Amino acid sequence: MACAAGVWKLIRQPTFGVLARLSRVGKCQHTGVMTSAVTRKQFSSDPPEHISRYPIPYKKDLPYDIVELMVEVETKGGFLPNVFKVLSHRPSEFRAFFAYYNALMNKETGALTKADRELIVVATSIHNHCLYCVVSHSALHRIYSKNPTLADQVTVNYESAQLNPRERAMLDFALAICRSDTITDAHFQELEAHGFDREDAWDIAAIASFFAMSNRLAHLTDMRPNTEFYSMGRVPREKDKDKSKGEGDDKSQCKAD
Amino acid sequence: MACAAGVWKLIRQPTFGVLARLSRVGKCQHTGVMTSAVTRKQFSSDPPEHISRYPIPYKKDLPYDIVELMVEVETKGGFLPNVFKVLSHRPSEFRAFFAYYNALMNKETGALTKADRELIVVATSIHNHCLYCVVSHSALHRIYSKNPTLADQVTVNYESAQLNPRERAMLDFALAICRSDTITDAHFQELEAHGFDREDAWDIAAIASFFAMSNRLAHLTDMRPNTEFYSMGRVPREKDKDKSKGEGDDKSQCKAD
Amino acid sequence: MACAAGVWKLIRQPTFGVLARLSRVGKCQHTGVMTSAVTRKQFSSDPPEHISRYPIPYKKDLPYDIVELMVEVETKGGFLPNVFKVLSHRPSEFRAFFAYYNALMNKETGALTKADRELIVVATSIHNHCLYCVVSHSALHRIYSKNPTLADQVTVNYESAQLNPRERAMLDFALAICRSDTITDAHFQELEAHGFDREDAWDIAAIASFFAMSNRLAHLTDMRPNTEFYSMGRVPREKDKDKSKGEGDDKSQCKAD
Amino acid sequence: MACAAGVWKLIRQPTFGVLARLSRVGKCQHTGVMTSAVTRKQFSSDPPEHISRYPIPYKKDLPYDIVELMVEVETKGGFLPNVFKVLSHRPSEFRAFFAYYNALMNKETGALTKADRELIVVATSIHNHCLYCVVSHSALHRIYSKNPTLADQVTVNYESAQLNPRERAMLDFALAICRSDTITDAHFQELEAHGFDREDAWDIAAIASFFAMSNRLAHLTDMRPNTEFYSMGRVPREKDKDKSKGEGDDKSQCKAD
Amino acid sequence: MACAAGVWKLIRQPTFGVLARLSRVGKCQHTGVMTSAVTRKQFSSDPPEHISRYPIPYKKDLPYDIVELMVEVETKGGFLPNVFKVLSHRPSEFRAFFAYYNALMNKETGALTKADRELIVVATSIHNHCLYCVVSHSALHRIYSKNPTLADQVTVNYESAQLNPRERAMLDFALAICRSDTITDAHFQELEAHGFDREDAWDIAAIASFFAMSNRLAHLTDMRPNTEFYSMGRVPREKDKDKSKGEGDDKSQCKAD
Amino acid sequence: MACAAGVWKLIRQPTFGVLARLSRVGKCQHTGVMTSAVTRKQFSSDPPEHISRYPIPYKKDLPYDIVELMVEVETKGGFLPNVFKVLSHRPSEFRAFFAYYNALMNKETGALTKADRELIVVATSIHNHCLYCVVSHSALHRIYSKNPTLADQVTVNYESAQLNPRERAMLDFALAICRSDTITDAHFQELEAHGFDREDAWDIAAIASFFAMSNRLAHLTDMRPNTEFYSMGRVPREKDKDKSKGEGDDKSQCKAD
Prior knowledge:
Six copies of one chain form a homohexamer.
Chain A: H1 2-5, H2 7-12, H3 18-22, H4 36-40, H5 64-77, H6 82-87, H7 91-105, H8 114-127, H9 131-145, H10 150-157, H11 165-178, H12 185-192, H13 198-221, H14 227-231, H15 238-242
Helix pairs in contact in A: 7-13, 8-9, 8-10, 8-11, 8-13, 9-10, 11-13
């Protein structure tokens, strides 16, 4: 049940999701009333596990809009991904970071599926040896794609992973951006040969670029992934095995609880 | 005079600057009335020079808040840096980008001077072979530092540039982040030995990380620097030679008109 | 005649089979009785899934000693790791390969635990981007160490993994060997400072060297890991949770069935 | 009992010893009679020259099968290559190593000549900066190929060496394996265009892989080549100049004595 | 006026230039009378600015032919490039260096323009991170080409610089030489496709090779560029703007005096 | 008139020719008498063996000073190293090249022995994969040092070669220059700790720099070493074995004829 909410669920639904509202960064006013129930469920209940080299602010010391987002994410997803806690050390950067994240990862248009986006993150983040991003976005890829092994394959070697040619072309381009290669018309022609137009190219490149930043922030802070991410999406739920009706692409698998 | 305002002037003054307002990304409503005079001064008057691989939107097709920012930047700085035009192709990303930029580059606290921030951008952007960022931020460094040669030295080889030990430690750390090295306590100790505390370390790293993203977006779009940037800040203005009173550190030099 | 078993015979020694025992890992229950039915259940019954670029011999075409080993490994371990099938394409090389493997990985003396050995394999195999070895030996590490996340951490970045200093020194040396660095006295001194003597150094280096070979054979054959390896050892068995008596270090965890 | 010889027995097969025959290379003449005097001339009679970082066992402390091999190799070849002494520190690994070596380097089938095999070893071992393997296998290449300069050329730069296209394709593939590149169909097509089928590809790759291991063991032990190897095969014997009948490809040239 | 002579002027005119005479290295006698006026204008008048890690000889301690050259260069060019001072520490090497420089950079035949030669120097020197050569030869390129931005573009990233295909092919080859790549027929074919014959290829390669040496000598000596080089050729002279008659390609622009 | 020999004259100085003496190396005996017959025996008499990608001029077409040098070198040394033939394609560059070579390699002062200089050439030329320079200067090192194996060791891996600490420090610095590293005070301190002063540092660096150029010219021309170089100095001459009087350090060993 909490399981059904899935962190990813939240991400998928920008219309009434919190992340979508995140993009109202700097918003002038808001009227949202936070129920006391939600308020009491704190994201800071975790043990003093090391998740960052920098201090994690107490909820009471954070701006209201950031707390509101965190509570909603945690409530719906079952746990709060550590990146929220770690980056809340710098509220103004937190807002810009998640606004950007939302603009790229929850974009509704273009040829990239949610699984595609996560695969780009995995392929580029392993290039940068970013523990947080590889582990957390591999989990998200397993959830979105229902493929429990492809992210691991891409982590080890995307060149030998079981990708279709379209995915391969997508990752080739993402890696060119990741390595800061000089991009030429040949790159775009290769993408077009696999059905990606110029706007899709921008999407791929912008995700690779954004995670070029994220990976480095994770190195700075020694950001550690939540334990949940390691096994999430690896084993099908019993319920899903019984009835494979799958109401939504992000609900059919779930971490065992 | 318009010259005196300088692009950088704008950046320096977040209190009533446009860039500061930029961080109101996603703002719910606004009441600003755009005068017709401002409207008529268009940033799109430049010839069809190649500045991006992607189309540059007509002003009339851009969201009001973006136009407002562009007009103000151009009016005050004398010209509109091409990054504004190029990224306006994606308004929501534009907003997040400049909100982030503002949070990092116009931050008022900490040990980093404006010249320091620009030097970090130059040193990391040359590592990524980013023409736009090296040329434009070398110009800004010359302006802020009043040192007409250091940015060029860092562009060629920061290890042999005439840096003081503090600047050298700052760039060593910025480059470690730029290369996506695993960051350890030893990095922080080295910084502390040169007067940078943990918050300064975050500032250095966040700038290096943000430009890891920016450099790659510039490669994607083949973003070209405005011609003005190449020579800006290289030769002292006559006026400045006569009276060296210098009302502000960012006004004393200017591109020749 | 028993003599005819040759190299292979050697592998099965230390009484009823070290390698076989190794492969019992992850198996939920077994009766120890090898029925003829089991014998008839052939390892070649798998669907024509792609596990190698080279043909997999039919059991009937393989030398007796190789078949004998395979049946025993499969019976005891629950599945036959694909490396056995793939390398059986060359029986004489198969025998030398597993004799070597056995001498290194099942060595009973020295400071290295079974988990240590697997961690060396993971750390060096990811350097070589070897899908088969990273995935299968990460599984073995999870089983032996009962640590469900460390192998994933090492896969992404052993420099930021939660290693103790002894493990870090061990992997630093393994990676020096893996990169074919020139080894100097300083390497041995560093190892000694963490409790590894010269014989342990040989063990570490020999494992790293052997997998330098294995990784490349996997690239040659496009060897694919059995699906079982991806999730093995990630989630504790119910039985283990109830009673943590642990009769053997390689039997206490198991893949969910 | 004969069974007791284990792996090692295997190596000596194809009747009186492939490895031993291999080591006859470079020997000017021999009578085939193993006098007791020769037997008494021990391989451990060499001065305490540094040939390994690890202790070299006394003959009396070595297993019988290993001594037997060493005596035969030394008797027939004129000297005992140091790799035998160095690896005898670990008898079980010694046996597996030479069983593997024998399976690859003395394989009687396929398109690779003995000189081809040695050239693969030289080209990959210089990539790994392995002194022992480059020097000793360059000597073997000179002997087998009767070409006194090609191995030196490959040592410096195989891309500019005087190779025919077939040899070039062979080394290109060997180096791809050596670098742990991801192997694709294109590699096999390139080989096929030069007359190498899939089994030849395996041979090339297995040799490159085996020496990926050997090179690293040589780094571990600081294994030093016998002085004889440096000049072996560089100058033709007088006898060979007079009558170029060449009874065998490995006997026609010899180090000057 | 002195300005009009420009250091580059000197270089351009080997017929009566000093550099051309330089190639008479080792000449047994000469009759040149040095006017007292020239003698009095000393190149050693600069402040004790750091320009080399090695001592700069006093003029009185230098061989006559070297002094003569320096005085002439300084008189005509307005300032003496520091490379003359720094290398005069070793007179015999000085003579060979400038004889070689003259043979390559002032060669009158072939397809390379003076601007082409300078561009090769810039592109290869930035690869070697040579401050002196990048800064000084970027200045010369601006002067010769009248293009105030191309050298800066090449410094950051020649792959994204606004080069025509001919220039791109020229720099591709220069960089292949610079990296010490093995040169093949394919390199020459690519050059021929852009109008460069084999002698032009030699010219390109010889310049790249000579600066491979120069760059390293600059690293040895920590050679610093004269301040004049940084801004030279960036801003058009007033006089040139008024009358664009341009009597010579190297006189139309000049450093401000 | 003799004066007309220019640069080249310089090379022949220190009385009857340092370079010529250098090339006497490896020659078994000579009478010192230059008969007209010898004069007529032209260096261009060699078969159309491939030694350069560029045409080798006929002697009759070469300037007198170049022919004079070649004849002397060939007469005294027994054969003419191919570099003389290959570079004579460009007489003015030929003169500067050998003037520079002479200034560096035949310098009479400082701490570097002739063998040291050759070792620097070998160590840096293998870094650049230059066949001509590695093979020819390995030969010269064997001659000068009377050590028949050290150059081969350095070719494979100078880090594991049997160097004394002084030689190791010398090559470490040479390689730093070779790689175009930024040189710092630490480099000089390391050298001083092994007895090299600043002038020795210049010597080491200048040789490494000069061969950075030479190696690249060899790549350009596909310059091939004379066959004599491969075996020169490997086997002691009979005469030398008998009487070890050694009149000169460059005459005591010789290629077998």
